[in-house]
Amino acid sequence: xxxxxxxxxxxxxxxxxxxxxxxxxxxxxxxxxxxxxxxxxxxxxxxxxxxxxxxxxxxxxxxxxxxxxxxxxxxxxxxxxxxxxxxxxxxxxxxxxxxxxxxxxxxxxxxxxxxxxxxxxxxxxxxxxxxxxxxxxxxxxxxxxxxxxxxxxxxxxxxxxxxxxxxxxxx
Length: 171
What we know:
The protein is mainly alpha-helical. The protein is built from six helices and three strands. Part of the 30S ribosomal subunit. Contacts protein S5. The interaction surface between S4 and S5 is involved in control of translational fidelity. This is Small ribosomal subunit protein uS4. Belongs to the universal ribosomal protein uS4 family.
């Protein structure tokens, strides 16, 4: 690996043993089917970056108007913010807002899998397509425009409606 290339895309907690934080992390890992705490910390770092950018843009109100519009448009495109939300609303985001936009969670919420863990397995094994392209990264952030194109690969055995591993229709 080249010198100076950043291989760590998250920050670990400052204090290693805080019971409440550890319990909250375990709850989120279980609810979203994350592989390990590193994935959760990556989402927290992503959220931290969004907040940092919002504070920077709020501090220089008026000077960087196009940058703030582009920043808001990006967050709205990913579905992290609603269409009516403003720059102030970025500061009130929670890590669950970021985790809800992961491909793994979208596949589970759309009813293609019974559990988030099963959704992760379907993605990693190449059964899920996004815009007719096979995707094998469960942590990928899904844009709202392409969310409707999530489905099973036509060459996958799971594309059969009667496959035993297919999820029941969730209401």
